[in-house]
Amino acid sequence: MTDTQRSDLPVVILCGGQGTRFREQTERKPKPMIEVSGRPILWHIMKFYSGHGYHNFILCLGYMGDIIKQYFLNFAAIESDFTVDLSAPGKIKYHNEDSLDWTVTCVDTGADSMTGARLRRVAKFIDADQFMLTYGDGLSNVNVPELVEFHRQHGGAATVTGVRPPGRFGELLVDGTRVTRFSEKPVDQGRINGGFFVFNKDFLRYLTDDDGCVLERTPLEQAAADGQLQMYAHDGYWQCMDTYRDLLHLEADWNDGDAPWRTW
């Protein structure tokens, strides 16, 4: 895949949830803005994708979405040293030598909508035949170009990355790489949905605009029943940020100086 093809492939990030397990922090900011060693986890996720050559982001906003909007409206000032000429209002010189070539589309997808509804509501901003999607609270060292190529080779409508974390999540039931069932309440723990999806745009037909549309339930379950959902197996690093303990784990990984998700 060429660099141009990569940069044109949109990355949709779900940023609208309330993050109730982080109530002390999420009373002031949305969960994707919780900082991992000084920068929002959302920044880490976007840097991870851009390190693989993907620079086109669509953010599904909801709870406290205005804070994420303000972050990107003021991104240059937040991330740079700068000089303000007070004799010429509005004249600012930024001294950041590491400028980013990201395009960031911020979309209000509703305060209480679920993941499927949020994705459905950004459909008009997805201007490619395929796109990626991930959650705004997880990091990995998954090989994204390899994941995209796997998706293109199998020809189905959807690919989910299957990981093996501690046994407290739902399970992907597979036959080889083909997902046969999408189970959120397994008896024996196997691979689980690690996020890091790739979809054909026609997957959107499985979604509705109803606030209660949950991507991980009827849409993915129906795609699996139709033989349209495949699993990309990832046995490397994967860490979600569900709890404060998870946050400490991510910060320790970053502070060790060799964060597994660092692609830049």
User: What share of the residues lie within helices?
Assistant: 25-40%
Low-pLDDT runs: none
Could you give the order of the helices and strands?
HEHEEHEHHEEEHEEHEEEEEHEEH
Number of strands: 16
**Which second-level CATH architecture applies?**
Alpha-Beta Complex
Largest sheet: 8 strands, mixed
CATH superfamily, please? Spore Coat Polysaccharide Biosynthesis Protein SpsA, Chain A
Tally the helices: 9
Q: What keywords describe this structure?
A:
single chain; 264 residues; alpha/beta; Spore Coat Polysaccharide Biosynthesis Protein SpsA, Chain A; eight-stranded mixed β-sheet; two-stranded antiparallel sheet; 25% strand; globular
Question: What does this entry look like structurally?
Answer:
The chain is α/β, with parallel strands linked by helices and 264 residues long. It has a single domain, classed as Spore Coat Polysaccharide Biosynthesis Protein SpsA, Chain A. Helix content is 28%, strand content 25%. Strands 1, 4, 7, 8, 10, 13, 14 and 15 form an eight-stranded mixed β-sheet that branches. The mean pLDDT is 90.
